[in-house]
Amino acid sequence: MKILFAGPSLSGTEFVPLRSGEDVLLPNHELTCRGPAKCGDITHAVDQGYRTIGLVDGRFEDVAAVWHKEILYALSKGAVIYGAASMGALRAAECYPFGMIGIGEVFERYAFGGLEDDAAVAQVHAPAEFGYIAFSEAMVTIDATLERAKAAGAINPDEMYYIRSAANAIFFKERSWRRVFDKISTEIADGEARIRPHICNIKRLDATLLLEAMLEQRQPKEMGAPDDHFQDWTFNETSQWLKLKV
């Protein structure tokens, strides 16, 4: 049994529910789709019998986020867990030594590229009934776009640094390309025209890679291998864990 937790990263696709609290069943993929995961959702899925789990988006502000302990619990039950794009990339970067499978560029940045800020993937988005449409832009998307623009010669390193700093200074709930372009307009000549062709929705790209790997139940070559030092770990049912399970 396979289940996917996704929202804004895959907005507008068949893999995102359009009603809060309801599943989308895709028999052709043998897949159940739910909205962004919160604390307890991974545990609940495992207890329901799901043994292939894809974590893309998660909730974090109005409720507790997915616990790392939930990931370990699922792994201890023999589940295969993929993570990418957003909350999934964060948890995969933290749990891949124990066997979670991280996929894509955002995961790579957190696990091996020195990215540490959890807020770099944060976005404000609409509820399920409006398709989880994103209202703000994540810094990982800004970074991926600027790197592609620089590689293409559209901006130089100094301009990239200035634009990134300007974007990062905008509160994540208010950050959008429109706000970024307006903020840099007086310092970067034709900034919007030079950058817009290189806009890269890296979260969606990574989420799509997760789907491909998950539906084919394969392990991508680019993922970090589990650490040998963590191969023989044992799940510990702590008192806090038992409170979550109640």
Give structural notes.
- This protein is of the alpha/beta class and 246 residues long.
- It has helices at residues 41-47, 68-76, 87-95, 104-112, 139-151, 157-168, 177-184, 191-195, 202-216, 239-245; strands at residues 2-5, 24-26, 31-34, 52-55, 80-84, 101-103.
- Strand 4 (52-55), helix 2 and strand 5 form a beta-alpha-beta unit.
- Helix 1 (41-47) packs parallel to helix 2, helix 5 (139-151) runs antiparallel to helix 6 and helix 6 packs across helix 7 (177-184).
- The two termini are 24 Å apart.
- The relative contact order is 0.15.
- The mean pLDDT is 91.
Derived from helix and strand composition plus strand pairing, the structural class reads alpha/beta
What's the count of strands?
6
Topology pattern, helix = H, strand = E: EEEHEHEHEHHHHHHH
Q: What is the tally of helical segments?
A: 10
Q: Alpha-carbon distance between the termini?
A: 24 Å
Q: Round the Cα radius of gyration to an integer and report it.
A: 19 Å
Beta percentage is 5-15%
The biggest beta sheet reads: 6 strands, mixed
Q: Which descriptor suits the 3D outline?
A: globular
What percent of the residues sit in helical stretches (DSSP H or I)?
Answer: 25-40%
Quote the average pLDDT.
91
What spatial order of strands do you see in the largest sheet? 2-3-1-4-5-6
Unreliable parts: none
